[in-house]
Amino acid sequence: MDKKRALSYKKAGVNVDEGLRVVRRIKRGVKGTYRKEVLGGLGGFGGLFSAGFKGLKDPVLVSSADGVGTKLIVAFMAGKHSTVGVDLVAMNVNDILTCGAEPLFFLDYIATGRLDAARASSVIKGVIRGCKEAGSALIGGETAEMPGMYRPGEYDLAGFSVGVVEKKKIIDGRDIKAGHSIVGLASSGLHSNGFSLARKVLFERLGFGVKTRLPGLGGRDLGSVLLTPTRIYVRPVLQILKKFTVKGLVHITGGGFIENIPRVIPKGLKAVVTAGSWPVPKIFKLIAEGGGVKEREMLRTFNCGIGMVMITKKTDTAPVVKELKKTGEKVFVIGEVKRRGAGEKAVKFTGGPVF
C-alpha cells in the first residue's frame, strides 16, 4: 500500500485527541454540579443517579428535551459561545418546573463538523453554569464530530433534563378557578425563541450587526443583548412552592402568551391579561417596529418581557409577589382568570396595546 495514501480517522476529519482535550477542560466543572445522588464519575458509558428520593412517598419523574434554536447563529456571528449552554439548560429545566418538579440531572449533546476544544469547552462551561443555577447535576453527554454535516465553525446543541415531583403535588392547571391571579416573572430578553424572525428584522431588513449599539439597550451592543442567557426560574419558584399552593405554571417559550397559557387553562375559563402591566424591553419594540410585526404576531412568537407565568389564589397573590421580590425577581400581577363565554379565546388582552 502506498504510505502517502494511508488514511486515518484524523485525516478523515475526526480528531479523537481534540475530544479528550474537551474532557480535560470541563472535568472539574462537571464535578462541581454533582448532587449527593450522583454515583460514579465522568467517563462512564452511562450516568448513574440514585433513585432513593427521601421524603417523597409517590415520586413521579418529569423529563424534557429541547435545544437553543437559531440563537446559535447569533453566537456564531458574535464569536461568543459562553452563554448558549445556559440557554440549553434553561429551556429544559424551566419546562419541567411547570409541573412542580425539581430538576435532578441533565445530559447535553453537541454536534459539529470539526471539533474545536476551546469552543466546545466554552459551550459546556455554560451548561455547567446553568446546571449549578438550577441545582441540577450534569451526569453525561455526547460531543459528536461529524465531518461534512456542518459548515466550518457551526455546531448544534440538544439538552435533556429529568426531575422529580410528589404525585399529589403535580401542577397541571386543573385546579385553576375564575378569580385567580396571573403573576408574571420578568424575562431577561428574547430567551431562546423567535430568533428566526428577530434575525430577519434586525440583521436583514434593518441591516444592523452584532456590534451595533442602539439607544435603550443599556449601552450594550446588539449581539450581547440577543445572547443574554435565558432566565432560570428554578430556585425562586421552588421556594414559592414550599410555602404556597400554586395552581398553574407556564413557561413562555415558542408560541408566546397566546399558545402557551391555554395549555394550563381549564375549559370554560380564559386568561385576561392587562396590557401595560409590565415593562416591555426595548429589544421587542425594535423588532415590532423595524419589521412591521403585528402585536398578535409578537405575542405568539416572543415572551415580550415575561418568561414565566404563575397562577395563584387571589389571597396568595400579594405574599407570593413579596416573596419573589425578596429573591431578586422582577414580578408583576398581569391579569386574572375569568369565565369564558361562547366563542371567546383562552387568552384575552385588555387595557390597550402591549407595545
SSE inventory with pairings:
Layout: H1 16-31, E1 38-39, E2 48-49, E3 59-67, H2 71-78, H3 84-97, E4 102-112, H4 117-134, E5 137-145, E6 155-166, E7 181-186, H5 195-205, H6 222-226, H7 234-243, E8 248-251, H8 256-260, E9 269-274, H9 282-291, H10 295-299, E10 306-312, H11 314-326, E11 331-339, E12 347-350
Parallel strand pairs: 4-5, 9-12
Antiparallel strand pairs: 1-2, 3-6, 4-6, 7-10, 7-11, 8-10, 9-11
Written description of the protein model:
This protein is α+β, with helices and mostly antiparallel strands and 355 residues long. It folds into two domains: 3-169, PurM-like, N-terminal domain (60s Ribosomal Protein L30, Chain: A, 2-Layer Sandwich), CATH 3.30.1330; 181-350, PurM-like C-terminal domain (Phosphoribosyl-aminoimidazole Synthetase, Chain A, domain 2, Alpha-Beta Complex). The chain contains eleven helices and twelve strands. The protein has helices spanning 16-31, 71-78, 84-97, 117-134, 195-205, 222-226, 234-243, 256-260, 282-291, 295-299, 314-326; strands at residues 38-39, 48-49, 59-67, 102-112, 137-145, 155-166, 181-186, 248-251, 269-274, 306-312, 331-339, 347-350. Helix 1 (16-31) packs parallel to helix 4 and helix 5 crosses helix 9. The longest helix is centred in the middle third of the chain and has 18 residues, at 117-134. The N and C termini lie far apart (70 Å). The mean pLDDT is 94.
